[in-house]
Amino acid sequence: MRFLFPFLLAFLAPLPLPAAQAAAPAAAPPLPPAQAPLHPPHDRWIRIPAGEFILRAFPAAPYPDPSRARGYTYQGRFYSAAAHYRDSTVGIFIPRGYRRALRVNYIIHFHGWNNHVARVLRRYRLPEQVAAARANAILLVPQGPYDAPDSGEGKLSHRPGDFALLLRQITAWLRRQGILRTRRIGEILLSAHSGGYHGAAQSLAIGGLADRVRQVMLFDAAYGGLPAFAGWMQAGRHRRFVSVFTDDTIAGNVRLMAAFQAAQIRFRVLRSAGLNRALARHHGRWRWNGARAIFLYTPHLPHDLTLQDRGYFRLFLAAAHLPRVRGSR
Predict the structure, then answer these.
(1) What is the C-alpha separation between 4 and 220, in angstroms, rounded?
(2) pLDDT value at 58 more than 70
């Protein structure tokens, strides 16, 4: 730790705003406008240029759950169970060109505070980014606390194996729909924005499928769950970790770096300009080059834009090197 801090103090020192802005162009081609409707109906497949998606309830989804049966209070405001902790929706997106295989690969994204699935799909351009990454994987977005300032993930937080149960329920339903031919779960990518860290961490700690997770991506989400992320990385040498962070989560990211350093896990720390130089050398694609983790410091990128503003979700999803959809080179 004592070797890490002097470097980080110099590296994370604020740049003058004009210089930082000039050195940080977009990391990827601009995304198309949001395609998902703002208020989509439930239980009906909706086609968009990027693919198709559906909002559907599943029994093993985080809520309802006894942990919030009496609601939740934050900073003096009460959030009732009926309004905020009864929604068992999971958003499912299948990219255009998806190929059925012997195993199904999943991308699971845990949203942050004060949000709900339909808004998350649209605001953060998740369907468009999955499609742009050309990954042959299905995106799942489970509903956490509905429009509430809460990181609790209900069943996923405290029921061992519930994460695996949820994925098995979704896989079985997709098979009955004729979308899949298999019940076998392949590789998993976990993503979390902001307060979604708890869902990702608990999925690794007690979810029952940690050995299937290939990559974890945090978007300004290193507020907690750090032992779960560090322990998961230490348990497998082919695992990858990404953290895109602003000043809001410097402390958590430094602790993760220290844990990785102690475990001799090689990582890189970059600013946006450094990332852009690396991308320029490899035709816009991220190359790990021996590192297993990247910490991307974006001090002038607002907290709520870390997924979509520069296409970082797409960029690092593509870097996971999952099988590609039909029509990909």
Answers:
(1) 20
(2) yes
- Count Cα neighbours of 193 within 13 Å in the Cβ-side half-sphere: 25
Say whether 161 sits in a helix, a strand or coil: coil
Is residue 102 within 8 A of residue 71, CB to CB? The reply is no
The answer to whether 144 and 152 have CB atoms below 8 angstroms apart is: yes
State in words which class domain 4-318 has. Answer: alpha beta
Enter the tokens of residue 72: 């939740």
Q: What's the rounded Cα separation, in Å, for the pair 132 and 54?
A: 19
CA distance readout (Å), 79 to 82, 148, 152, 156: 9, 7, 13, 20
Write phi, then psi, for 35 (nearest 5 degrees).
-105, -25
* 24 vs 276: CA distance, rounded Å: 7
Residue 271: phi and psi, rounded to 5, are -95, 175
pLDDT band at 275 (very low <50, low <70, confident <90, very high): confident
Spatial neighbors of 251 by CB under 8 A, at least 6 apart, are: none
User: 16 pLDDT band (50/70/90 cuts)?
Assistant: very low
Neighbours of 266 (CB within 10 A): 12
Q: Which residues contact 36 (CB under 8 A, 6 or more apart)?
A: 46, 48, 53, 118, 121, 122, 127
Residue range 209-222, pLDDT digits in tens: 999 999 999 999 99
Contact by Cβ (8 Å): 52, 46? yes
- Do residues 189 and 317 make contact, with C-beta atoms less than 8 angstroms apart? yes
User: How far is residue 125's CA from residue 317's CA, in Å, rounded to a whole number?
Assistant: 13
Identity of the residue numbered 114: N
Q: Is the dihedral of CA 107, 110, 112, 117 positive or negative?
A: positive
**Domain-wise residue ranges, the chain:** 4-318
Tokens of 161: 């194996």
209/230 Cα distance (integer angstroms):
16
- Tell how far CA 261 is from the center of its chain: 23
